[in-house]
Design goal:
This protein has 14 helices and 9 strands. With 326 residues, it is of the alpha/beta class.
Length: 326
């Protein structure tokens, strides 16, 4: 897992941000999903598909962030399984990647239902109904139901998502008669560069400012105007600040261990003479040094030191010296 992955995963695990993303995607910004009702799940999905020779083959995939939502509607519990995939770059096979994750989750639910029925049948005085031959064979009973799985791809890039957004777009055959028999799979995508201001305003957590910052990161004038006029940038969460830095290549000055950051005061390189990309030569050099440090720390499996280096400048400088990075 690279530096960008660590930073975006840590940020998206925040229940306020996570709920904000799904309220936008499902309810067009209406605050239906409450952060306190979200419970984090293990992101590892494991099922055992069988080969042609009957040999069990362990198969494991990991989501970035996965949570379960329990809501109340008409006195009936409603459950949803919600997943987020963070992307710092476009992924040209994203429909298949997400389809595999979702399919594994559904397969795991079927497997759990089967295991539950088997355990109940083995118990004495169990109220478990006797399955018919088809139910016994599949392990999934006529009245069993699955929890719906919704996965959202959050693209932390300023550019448009130029990769396929559906399985059909990836297929070599585009004959409509053939495609009508091939189930499609479309990704649910959030890409700030493609969103209007009105859409971004649906968000109410720091995710709104993160999306705005990334959206205008290549337009120095608009970005400067944004951070100077939006009061939310006067006190940004440190995790949100890390995401903005990492995804745009900009450095935002702050005090060590500071939990809230004044982005407007801390941005470097937003002077009128800055390069079109909004990154000065000094910032590029600093970013290159940190990228080299990240590679060394990941190579040596020093994950905790990597996390600490994000906010502790003195410790980061110590590591740079340790690895001989000038």
């Amino acid at each position: 897992m690279g530096r960008k992955d660590i930073i975006t995963k840590e940020y998206m695990e925040d229940t306020e941000v996570f709920a904000d993303v799904f309220n936008h995607m499902i309810y067009q910004g209406e605050k239906v999903i409450e952060p306190k009702k979200l419970k984090e799940l293990d992101t590892a999905n494991v099922i055992i598909p069988y080969g042609a020779d009957g040999t069990a083959v362990p198969y494991q995939k990991y989501r970035d962030v996965f949570k379960i939502l329990s809501a109340m509607e008409d006195e009936n519990a409603v459950y949803l399984l919600l997943g987020v995939e963070n992307q710092s770059r476009v992924h040209y096979a994203m429909p298949v990647k997400n389809m595999v994750y979702d399919s594994l989750e559904y397969a795991a639910q079927v497997q759990k239902a089967e295991s539950s029925h088997r355990r109940a049948l083995r118990k004495k005085n169990s109220d478990e109904k006797k399955p018919d031959s088809s139910e016994f064979l599949s392990g999934f009973y006529r009245e069993d139901r699955l929890l719906p799985v919704i996965t959202v791809v959050v693209y932390f890039g300023a550019d448009d998502w130029v990769a396929p957004r559906s399985l059909h777009e990836m297929l070599v055959v585009q004959d409509e008669k053939i495609l009508s028999l091939v189930p499609d799979y479309r990704i649910n995508l959030i890409a700030p560069g493609e969103m209007s201001e009105e859409e971004i305003e649906h968000f109410t957590s720091s995710f709104r400012e993160v999306m705005q910052f990334i959206k205008y990161s290549k337009d120095t004038k608009k970005l400067k105007e944004l951070v100077e006029t939006n009061v939310a940038f006067k006190s940004m969460d440190i995790k949100a600040t890390r995401v903005m830095e990492e995804m745009t290549g900009m450095r935002i000055e702050r005090e060590d261990e500071e939990e809230k950051v004044d982005v407007c005061a801390g941005i470097l390189g937003l002077q009128e003479e800055a390069r079109t990309e909004g990154i000065t030569k000094g910032i590029r050099i600093g970013a290159e040094r940190e990228q080299r440090l990240t590679k060394f720390l990941l190579r040596d499996n020093r994950i905790e030191d990597l996390k600490r280096s994000f906010d502790d400048e003195a410790f980061r400088n110590k590591l740079l010296k340790e690895y001989g990075i000038d």
